[in-house]
Amino acid sequence: MSKISIPIGPQHPLLKEPLSMKIDISGEKVLGGSLRLGYVHRGIERLAQKRNYVQTIHLVERVCGICSHIHTTTFCQAVESLLKLEVPPRAQYLRALMCELERIHSHLLWLGILAKHVGLDTIFMHTWHDRELALDVMEEITGGRVLHGANQIGGVRFDLDESHFPMIHANLEKLRSQILGLLDILENEPALIARTKGVAPVSQKTIRQYGVVGPVARASGVDVDMRRDNPLPPYDQLKFSVVTMPDGDAWARTIVRAEEIRESLNLCEMILEDLPDGEVSKRAPRNVPEGEVIIRSEAPRGELFYYLRSDGTDQPARLKIRTPTLAALCLLPVQMSDIQVADIPVVLAGVDLCVACADR
Amino acid sequence: MDKVNFEVLREQIDSLVGSKCEVYDAIGNDDALIIPSERLMDVVALIDQIFDGAHLTTITAQQRAGQLDLIELMYHFYQKFAFTIIVRLQAEAPSIASILSILPGADFYEREVAEMFGVKFTGRTETPPLLLPDDWDQGPPFIRKEVIDE
């Protein structure tokens, strides 16, 4: 049968963000594919070299509309590390609370997209409805649903008081009961199992060769999580399990993320229970002493990498950002070989695409 | 593999290269080693062999003020501990061997360094733009310091 090349994107109903793909097929079989990024490239690394550190916080918050908080957290940690500034414990816990809420809503958003792609619109609507519970908490405590403006160098710009706790606990409890029901559906829904089990499996060796991180790596049995392996405070004081699955297929990627939501809910409760008293920020100088630092954190999609070099002024001399999506996208052409045409949406959804993150 | 730390790795790299590589200790949270650029492939192959699959986090390219004649490439690895391999290239015609044959995951990172800093990667067929438009023609590479400081 002859080979046909199908262009998908950069604008396509299947994609929520601009990404250009060329997929080669022969009959119903996918032979391979290639990618073209850059449609939302904003030149953030270059822009950062012309902004001061305070402005750069707002710049890196705009790398991604889903995991904006982990970007500012990682950047602030890098600056604070160069400043040798110790962040108050309460601020560390509040940052972690936001990170976990972000992971919950990111995973629920992803789960909804997967469900939509395989035709399970009811699950899509339920997960996106439940995601609002996490977003409501974030909005309540920081004032922002997408861009939270929660971090500053030296701490956070918000605090919790007694009036916040009943609403947060109620939403977390509701989320927990919803997730239990969702997990039950995911594990037993024949249509979902048929569409994801055994689809596009990725071996541990391939994961290592491509430097893939986060839930995609953990779904292939790679036991890696920066919160445990390279913890930023307060994760060194929090107990949680790293969820892994051996199968490496689309099914494993689904279950890993769903179980991670449960772990994040536990972490939120733990953070609220152990939340230290005290101040939430320290005053930081405008100029950062000469030096360079690398910070690795665990974003919802995996290891987030920031390299920051200061030459002693109030502007970064070099800021390098490696988002987890970029590594996962590199693997996509490999996953796009030897699958059925009908599996393309499942594979695309499986890597949890975030083109804005990859393009920066 | 579990017993390998940076010191053990450094000794093995020194022995491979045949001389003592300079330890660069200015990066917070990461140990770093400066190696001769012509030995990059050998060193990456060694790392891949020691750890039974190297995890390359990314490649950072940069220029430092006062050293604009050099482009520094930093290969960041994470194998239960973080370390960085640094090579320095002449900025006039920067060129280095591609590590794609060992680590196919380096594809996007090499392409980004090529388009942003004008580094040529030898041993791979091409480095198509990753982020900039195909017809990008606005002068020198995008993040070169002399371009930003204009």
Describe the fold and architecture:
Chain A is α+β, with helices and mostly antiparallel strands and 360 residues long. Helix content of chain A is 49%, strand content 14%. In chain A, helix 4 (89-117) packs antiparallel against helix 11 (250-274), helix 6 (165-188) packs antiparallel against helix 11 (250-274) and helix 7 crosses helix 11 (250-274). Chain A is globular and about 65 Å long. Chain B has 150 residues and is of the alpha/beta class. Chain B has helices at residues 6-17, 40-50, 107-117, 145-148, and strands spanning 22-24, 27-28, 31-34, 56-62, 70-78, 82-90, 95-97, 120-122. Chain B has one domain (6-144): Beta Polymerase, domain 2 (2-Layer Sandwich), CATH 3.30.460. The chains are: A alpha+beta (360), B alpha/beta (150). Chain A binds chain B through residues 37-38, 41, 43, 45-46, 49-50, 81-82, 204-205, 208-212, 229-230, 291-296, 303, 305, 307, 309, 311, 317-318, 320, 322, 326-327, 329-331, 359-360, and chain B through 26-30, 53-58, 60, 62, 64-65, 74, 76, 78, 80, 82, 84, 103-109, 129-133, 142-143, 148.
